[in-house]
Amino acid sequence: MTALHPTGATSKRAQSERNLDALVAWLSKAEASGSMADVGAAGPDGFKVNRTHAAKACGFARSAFSTNPAFVAAVSAFEERQNTRCKSSSHGAFSNGMDEDGGGTLLGDDTAHGYPGMASSGDNAQMRKALDAKDKEISNLRRRLHAKSVETEHLRDELRKTRSFLDTVLPTGLPFPRRGKP
Questions:
Q1: Contact yes or no for 166/174 (Cβ under 8 A)
Q2: 78-88, pLDDT tens digit by residue?
């Protein structure tokens, strides 16, 4: 039965319990069907649930994972079961097709970690090279963004000064000074 406030609205605790039940049911269904690629991904540190995807799939806010310890405990227990199950399996591969060192491919995907043309045998050196290139590109973009932000702020300051000057000069009826001509 749903707990009600005197105003008739469902309580936050009851809503939280329903959301937790939905999360546990969703994780159990994914585990039973073996569709771990829809739930999360395995990496060097083991299987990790995609919390944003889980929140969307279950119909609650992503912030529930940071405000409710029961959600974190449920997901951590699920991740631990997946990691234990995968480590004890005879082939040593995670349920989404990745081996324990992070190599391999995602289920139903012929690319390693979503990078086309990479070998599915776990070619970590090639993957690191691609990731390093992306990191370098991101750093360059961040540097350019910072430079543009500084330039924008400088131009805004110039505009403020010009507007202030115009607000002072125009009401007095003085002629407007021309740039570049003596």
A1: no
A2: 888 888 877 66
